[in-house]
Amino acid sequence: MAKTPVIAIVDDDEGVRTSLASLVRSLGYEAHAYASGAEFLRQSPGNDPTCMIADIQMPVITGDELQAQLVASGRRFPIIFMTAFPSELVRQRVMAAGAHCFLGKPSSGDEIIRCLEEALAGQAQQ
Fold first, then answer.
1. Which of 44, 60, 87, 115 has its CA 20 to 30 A from that of 81?
2. pLDDT tens string for the chain (126 positions)?
3. Where is the Response regulatory domain (predicted)?
4. Domain spans in the chain, listed from the N-terminal domain onward
5. CATH hierarchy code of domain 6-124
């Protein structure tokens, strides 16, 4: 029996975390929500998610700083970034570092689902 994909949601906005977790669960996936990059990093690397949806603009550790720390420590899984302040410079930086998608906020459920399904399909092929 295939293991249910685990999607980590990292966003300092509780409403966004709650709505994304609800969307992820409605698709049949397991959702783990974190209020910050630091909170996510406190979990053991052996419990890495199948995929992550992360905000860029967060206090203490931004989404792109979280990505850099994960990559530097060898923790690689698809990351879908969402931000209310999209910039081409940040998009290029996170995509060059291996991000799967870069979406503006608000994004439609369909856009999020498309990115998530593409990311999970890529993981299944590895």
1. 44
2. 568 999 999 999 999 999 999 999 999 999 999 999 999 999 877 889 999 999 999 999 999 999 999 999 999 999 999 999 999 999 999 999 999 999 999 899 999 999 999 999 986 665
3. 6-120
4. 6-124
5. 3.40.50.2300
